[in-house]
Amino acid sequence: MIAKLSFLAALLCFGGFVRGDDCIPRYVENLRINVSAVLTWEVHPDEKCEIKEFKVDVVSDDHDYELHFKVVFQYVDLSILPVCEEWHFVVTPIAADDVVGYERRLVGHVPLPSSADISLRYFNVTQQNSRDVLLQWDLLNHTLGDCTLRYRIVIENRESGDFQDVYVSGRSTNLHNLSPCVPYHITIRAVNIAHPTIEGPIRFNNLEIPPHAQVSPSLTSIEIGPTSADMTWGLENWSNRCPVRALHIDGGSRFNISVPIEDSPDRPPVEVNLKGLQPNRMYYLKVAVENSGGLSQPSQIAVQTAELDPGH
Ligand SMILES: *[C@@H]1O[C@H](CO)[C@@H](O)[C@H](O)[C@H]1NC(C)=O
Ligand SMILES: *[C@@H]1O[C@H](CO)[C@@H](O)[C@H](O)[C@H]1NC(C)=O
Ligand SMILES: *[C@@H]1O[C@H](CO)[C@@H](O)[C@H](O)[C@H]1NC(C)=O
Ligand SMILES: *[C@@H]1O[C@H](CO)[C@@H](O)[C@H](O)[C@H]1NC(C)=O
Ligand SMILES: *[C@@H]1O[C@H](CO)[C@@H](O)[C@H](O)[C@H]1NC(C)=O
């Protein structure tokens, strides 16, 4: 009940301000703060009211600090504000007859100036486990903050010349897609995105993840006769570039076969044709792939040969 009453009171109060023929100014548009710390906006293109001035309220996130202006132009110079702190910028148009319009709010910060020192104190590259690499860095000077900084990381494969170019924020990132056995050259620099042509000095590191065995090969097809088994085995793809040398088929006490592999980027499945098997017999096979990192874990299969066709 109390809520309803106060709602009514608010309506009446509002009604007292706005007469039927009053023109209520619309929201301003394109409210933004530029790199010179100038807050700008535009009058709504369909604005019907005559605008006398704009009320500009700048409030800190914790409401501890406030600035209030009334201006006739469509900008306010806010270079007195500290950079990289979050502010609420609220602009409200006021009509010639003092009717207050709708407010437009922007939450943002004054960008880092072009003069800011954005060099890095260090750039560390640490291999965490077989394939994960942690990159860490930090700014030399934190005085002004880092709100408009991104870090541009270029990962170059020094063998092929291929490179990846990524932008990250924060002070660290993980790379999961680096291949062992590839020499990488990794560079980093800060970029102030408020002044996109300004890049900080480069730091770099070289990295080569040591050779790493392949994952177990996977059986992709098999055809079994009375005395033969024709199989194809799929290999881990080129994301592990350590050169592949051979596929080993361990038939326990019965045989051991190695199929040499000529490695290539498409890593086609390897054909294995076992001959001279006994009909109607169970063979247990362990199949492992060997690369410069050693032997993979074996894949195990059981192969039951067919019975001899009585017609033969
Ligand atoms: C920022 O906006 C003000 C007002 O529009 C303009 O005078 C100034 O040149 C702008 N600064 C930059 C760097 O664009
Ligand atoms: C980065 O490497 C340097 C030199 O090895 C070391 O002193 C520093 O503690 C490392 N920083 C981090 C965050 O690991
Ligand atoms: C850090 O940057 C601030 C602001 O640009 C500057 O006044 C200060 O001298 C710098 N500190 C160092 C140690 O360079
Ligand atoms: C290799 O395989 C992994 C997953 O097994 C996949 O995410 C990746 O895209 C593949 N890479 C290539 C080069 O085919
Ligand atoms: C094949 O190799 C495995 C593992 O090295 C071994 O245990 C087995 O005795 C070998 N079999 C033959 C027939 O040599």
UniProtKB/TrEMBL annotation:
<dbReference type="InterPro" id="IPR036116">
    <property type="entry name" value="FN3_sf"/>
</dbReference>
<protein>
    <recommendedName>
        <fullName>Fibronectin type-III domain-containing protein</fullName>
    </recommendedName>
</protein>
<feature type="domain" description="Fibronectin type-III">
    <location>
        <begin position="119"/>
        <end position="212"/>
    </location>
</feature>
<dbReference type="InterPro" id="IPR013783">
    <property type="entry name" value="Ig-like_fold"/>
</dbReference>
<dbReference type="Pfam" id="PF00041">
    <property type="entry name" value="fn3"/>
</dbReference>
<keyword id="KW-0732">Signal</keyword>
<feature type="domain" description="Fibronectin type-III">
    <location>
        <begin position="213"/>
        <end position="311"/>
    </location>
</feature>
<feature type="signal peptide">
    <location>
        <begin position="1"/>
        <end position="20"/>
    </location>
</feature>
<dbReference type="InterPro" id="IPR003961">
    <property type="entry name" value="FN3_dom"/>
</dbReference>
